[in-house]
Amino acid sequence: MNSPVELWKKHPDIDKIEVSSFGRVRSVKGHYYTSCHDHGGYLLVGFRVNGKHVSKLVHRLVAQAFIPNPNNLPQVNHKDSDRTNNNVSNLEWCNNSYNQIYMEKFGISNTESRGKPVFAINLTTLEVSRFRSQHEAERALGVYQANINSVIRGRYKQTGGYWFVNDDGHKDAQIQQKIVEGQRAIAQKQAEVDAKQQTINDLTSQLEAAKQANNDLSQAIKDAQNIKDYSDQAVKSANAQ
């Protein structure tokens, strides 16, 4: 039986790195990045982009490079529940509900079971997701656990486009308030877009009016010139008689 062949692809969003179907990451110049474990047991790699150091979860890099995501699903699931097995055959895009059902069916780690559950609100879509811990949210959404904790503690307003709050059974009103705030923000952004579009429409109308006025002026000048030419010709004819 033939052994699987390791395939390499350039990452679609980070053009300086290549990702392999076996879960390895290297630079386009051939330098292999060493991975390390984060607090939740997932593998991270670090490198520089535009002079800034960034760290990325390996399983998300592999999924982004190899697995189509036409429905724009937000999370990546490890089919065998092994967070270090980032082979492309072990990964799949999924939504939060699928991930929750999968973990309940196949089990979760002791670390996650001891963590406090959290809610995450996508500030663009206002979708609310629930995770068993900050670590699980980090892995699913690709947002650093330290930043999630900073949002929960009120030090950050958001991270990675999400707002987080602990699920202690008494946060329904707070979550609803955040959703309302998000709806207001979306409505405000839409109003700003509509206002800008109206300004563009007004300027376009003014430009068309100016063009028409210029055409009318050009025609008036031509008409005046024709009248002058006719008058000059009439004077010449009269003098000739």
Could you say what the CATH architecture of the largest domain is? Alpha-Beta Complex
The radius of gyration is 31 Å
Helix proportion range: 40-55%
CATH class of the largest domain: Alpha Beta
How many domain units?
3
| Mean pLDDT level | 83
Shape annotation: elongated
The CATH topology of the largest domain corresponds to Homing Intron 3 (I-Ppo) Encoded Endonuclease, Chain A
The main β sheet shows up as: 3 strands, antiparallel
Number of helices: 6
SSE string: EEEEEEHEEHHEEHHEH
Distance between the termini: 113 Å
Q: What structural class should be given to the helix and strand makeup?
A: alpha+beta
Spans of at least 5 consecutive residues whose pLDDT stays below 50 are 109-114
Strand tally, please? 11
How is this fold's topology laid out?
Layout: E1 8-10, E2 17-20, E3 25-27, E4 36-37, E5 43-49, E6 52-57, H1 58-66, E7 75-78, E8 91-94, H2 96-106, H3 110-114, E9 118-122, E10 128-131, H4 134-141, H5 145-152, E11 162-166, H6 172-240
Antiparallel strand pairs: 1-2, 2-3, 4-5, 5-6, 7-8, 9-10, 9-11
